[in-house]
Amino acid sequence: MNPEMVVRLAKEAIEVTLYLALPIMGVGLIVGFLISLFQAVTQMHEITLTFVPKIVAVLVSLLFLAPWMLQKLTFFTERLLLQLPGFVR
Questions:
Q1: Per-residue pLDDT for the chain (89 aa), expressed as one digit of tens each?
Q2: 26: how many CB neighbours lie within 10 A of its CB?
């Protein structure tokens, strides 16, 4: 296994990680923005108002996106395992 293969493998792993995490982080960002906008308009600054809706939104989005995320992760793992004999040489 040469250094170019290691760098390529690390790059692909980071890309898959970001590709899977981006929708969840996007949902958290959008919900957080809407909550902070609501707090700025109403001048209501309750600490639980910031965390609970974000946690619920992230969990709901995880429920809906879990099959897609599992499919992408399985594809990456299968490809990695198929390339494994080439790494040994």
A1: 788 888 999 999 999 999 999 999 999 999 999 999 998 898 888 877 888 999 999 999 999 999 999 999 999 999 999 988 887 76
A2: 11
Instruction: Return d(Cα 50, Cα 65) in angstroms, integer.
Output: 23
Distance CA 25, CA 18 (A): 10
Cβ contacts of 5 within 8 Å, gap of 6 or more: 87
Name the residue ranges covered by the structural domains of the chain: 12-88
Q: Are 62 and 26 in contact (CB under 8 A)?
A: no
Do residues 53 and 35 make contact, with C-beta atoms less than 8 angstroms apart? Answer: yes
Query: Full-prediction pTM beyond 0.70?
Result: yes
Express the helix, strand and coil content of the chain in percent, nearest 5 each: 90, 0, 10
| Residues 87, 5 contacting (CB under 8 angstroms) | yes
